[in-house]
Design goal:
This protein has about 550 residues and is an alpha+beta fold. The protein has four domains: about 5-185, no CATH class; about 205-305, 2-Layer Sandwich (Beta-Lactamase); about 310-385, Methane Monooxygenase Hydroxylase, Chain G, domain 1 (Up-down Bundle); about 395-545, Histidine kinase-like ATPase, C-terminal domain (Heat Shock Protein 90), CATH 3.30.565. The protein is about 55% helix and about 15% strand. The chain is built from 14 helices and 13 strands. The protein has a five-stranded antiparallel beta sheet. Strands 7-9-10-12-11 form a five-stranded mixed beta sheet, covered by helices on one side. Helix 2 (about 35-60) packs antiparallel against helix 3, helix 11 packs parallel to helix 12 (about 435-450) and helix 12 (about 435-450) runs antiparallel to helix 14 (about 505-515).
Length: about 550
């Protein structure tokens, strides 16, 4: 049974029960016996019909048919009540209007007109039967019958019929208007819900962080991407001032709203944005936020993590710089190397002369030594600007790394306070590449790590095998680097060590790039440095020997 049919039954039962209780109270509080037994008859008839409605509702699934049956039964009960309470003189003829209004509200215009027609038929038949004496007035009626003329009868019936139909038309009109309004509200509510869901999905799906602020700079909302970038949850951000999260310094927010009055958007960028233990680069833009009425209600802050983009830009600049240096310096290096060889040869001949005193012999030795050092620097530089042709082949990168670390561990460069620890898993792993060049990369990075620990320390080397890469991490606990040193680490002739040429890391970077890999640097001054080398693995030879 439908909800409105059940509700109609419930209202009917409550109304009849209330009437019955009032009748009982009157019956037992008034000493004079009143002729109200017909009310018991009416209540009994109503309860009986209610039980019938419940049974019919279980058998019939049609909502309209259930409501028509119930309203028809109500019209019959109302007619019985009108008959018992005086017929044409009964004050309960208004109950027909209740059924007509109910039908108009639940079944709209057609239902209201049908109910009005039913009331007209029943009331008109009752009036005619009682007027012509076919149906006598009950003996227990409270009302004394009065003589009715034909004109009065027709006038009474006409006014009642007009009232029935007028009520049906007016109520059904209002009901249909109300129904259309509800339908429009439901449609608008549905559209609003869909729009709100779409807006929520858009806000939660954008990769940029989004924060809304009150006019005082209090965070009122943050999207999931913003929480991910700031490494915070929404509860720890909402309700706090924006200065607490590093976008603005203490007291700086006071001048931001004044800036927005002159510019629609205020863009900023911070390369030293502290998030937890990491220093990141963030770009953010602040714009005014207005309410639906166009009133200023706060601000929106959109921000992005630019750290990876900055690294990529630095890599591109480094490549361009290396290419420019290579093109410019290759010829110069050859031009220097040829006269240097002649100078070194001439000095060697002069050194053999017996006419030189010991001081002159010492000066000749210094010239030869410095010539050899300069020639080595030029050779390294030529290897950088014109690297050897890569000869790729299958080689065991794990074994090559282990041998390089053993070689460094037994070299004079490793001081007494230095230790090398490594965890190479698996101990054997084959990739495709130039084994000699990759070994040179390992040597340069590990040697640099040892030199970065002048007072001793530990170099930890670990490996990791991914689906498409082989990763080696060189971690030291040396003096570390600031941002400027990190940016120029792979630039040629940029070195932080007195005995270095500034080409070892540049050559290593170029070798890794030519192998399709990448080098990443993470360093904190006074804490240490971690350099990660990632080399691609050919899918056809991925094999590890445990």
């Amino acid at each position: 049974m439908h909800t409105d049919a059940r509700m109609l039954i419930a209202v009917r039962v409550v109304a009849v029960t209330t009437l019955l209780l009032a009748t009982l109270i009157i019956q037992y509080t008034v000493r004079e016996l009143l002729p109200i037994n017909y009310l018991y008859t009416t209540a009994g008839l109503t309860y009986g019909l209610t039980l019938a409605y419940i049974g019919v509702g279980k058998l019939l699934t049609s909502r309209k048919l259930n409501l028509v049956i119930q309203i028809s039964g109500d019209l019959v009960v109302e007619t019985v009540l009108v008959y018992f309470t005086g017929g044409l003189d009964s004050p309960f003829s208004f109950l027909y209007l209740v059924s007509i209004i109910t039908a108009s509200m639940l079944l709209y215009r057609r239902g209201g007109l049908l109910a009005a027609s039913g009331a007209v038929i029943l009331y008109g038949a009752l009036a005619d039967l009682m007027y012509y004496g076919v149906l006598p007035l009950p003996e227990q009626s409270w009302f004394v019958p009065t003589p009715w003329s034909s004109s009065r009868l027709y006038f009474n019936m006409a006014t009642n019929f007009a009232g029935f139909y007028a009520t049906a038309f007016l109520t059904s009109y209002l009901a249909e208007k109300l129904r259309k309004t509800f339908e429009e509200l439901d449609a608008n509510r549905q559209n609003l819900a869909e729009l709100r869901a779409l807006n929520q999905n858009v806000v939660e799906s954008i990769p940029s962080g989004l924060i809304t602020l009150s006019q005082e700079g209090i965070v009122t909302f943050i999207n999931p991407a913003g929480c991910l970038i700031l490494h915070q949850d929404a509860q720890s951000v909402i309700g706090h001032r924006i200065e607490q999260f590093g976008f603005y310094a203490a007291g700086e927010w006071q001048g931001v709203p004044r800036t927005l009055t002159a510019e629609p958007v205020v863009r900023s960028e911070k390369n030293d944005f502290q998030i937890g233990d990491e220093t990141r680069s963030l770009g953010f833009a602040l714009t005014p936020l207005n309410s639906i009425e166009g009133m200023a209600s706060g601000y929106t802050l959109i921000f992005q993590d630019l750290t990876d983009m900055k690294k990529l830009e630095a890599e591109l600049r480094l490549k361009d710089r290396m290419a420019a240096v290579g093109e410019l310096s290759a010829g110069i290096a050859h031009e220097i190397r040829n006269p240097l060889a002649a100078i070194a040869g001439s000095v060697q001949v002069l050194k053999k002369s017996t006419a030189l005193n010991p001081q002159e012999q010492r000066l000749m030795s210094i010239i030869l030594k410095e010539s050899e050092r300069l020639n080595k620097s030029i050779a390294d530089f030529l290897r950088f600007v014109k690297p050897q042709e890569k000869r790729p082949a299958e080689f065991d990168i794990a074994a090559s790394l282990s041998e390089t670390l053993d070689l460094l561990g037994n070299s004079p460069e490793l001081g007494a306070g230095h230790t090398i620890e490594h965890s190479i898993t698996p101990p054997s792993y084959t990739i495709v590449g130039d084994g000699d060049q990759i070994r040179q990369v390992f040597w340069n990075i590990a040697r640099n790590a040892v030199q970065a620990m002048p007072d001793g320390g530990t170099l930890l080397v670990t490996t990791e095998v991914g689906d498409d890469h082989y990763k080696i991490v060189f971690s030291d606990n040396g003096r570390g680097m600031n941002d400027a040193d990190q940016r120029r680490l792979f630039q040629p002739f940029r070195t932080n060590f007195p005995s270095g040429t500034g080409l070892g890391m540049a050559i290593s970077y170029r070798i890794v790039q030519e192998h399709g890999g990448r080098i990443d640097v993470t360093s904190r001054e006074g804490v240490g440095t971690a350099i990660t080398v990632s080399l691609p693995v050919s899918a056809s030879i991925q094999n590890a020997v445990a």
